[in-house]
From TrEMBL:
The chain crosses the membrane at residues 25-43, 76-98. Keywords: Membrane, Transmembrane, Transmembrane helix. GO terms for cellular component: membrane. The keyword Iron-sulfur does not apply. This is Membrane protein FxsA. PANTHER family: UPF0716 PROTEIN FXSA. Signal peptide: none annotated. Pfam families: FxsA.
Amino acid sequence: MRLFFLLLPWLELFTLIQLGIETSALTAIFYVLATLVLGMAILRRQGMQLFQQLREAQQGAVLGPRLLVDDMAMGLAGILIAVPGILTDIAALVVMIGPLRRRVARFFGAPEPEPYRPQYDQSADSVIEGQFRRVDDDMRP
């Protein structure tokens, strides 16, 4: 596995050179730029959805297993697409296709995700002890 990760940049470079040979250098450059923009757009969209779900969870909503499996997988796909190269783009497509992603995860022995339910203290007599220091007092002249 280490050998694969050591060879991956060279394989990606080889595939991009082959793309440039088969089409043109401008096509290969456009491909790299287009996948970079697409990957950044996917990351931005997934990041906004992730923060929205976390805000809802703070208000008492239940975080489903989708958050850690599907949404984070889409973030990984965005990173893989943004990396220049055809092999990582193929891996990103595998990650983006939900049923295929789940089948690959089961193949590698990933456990079935369980929903997360935050625990809240329901007692009315909650006392939190501690010390505090006002930071804005330190800022005054």
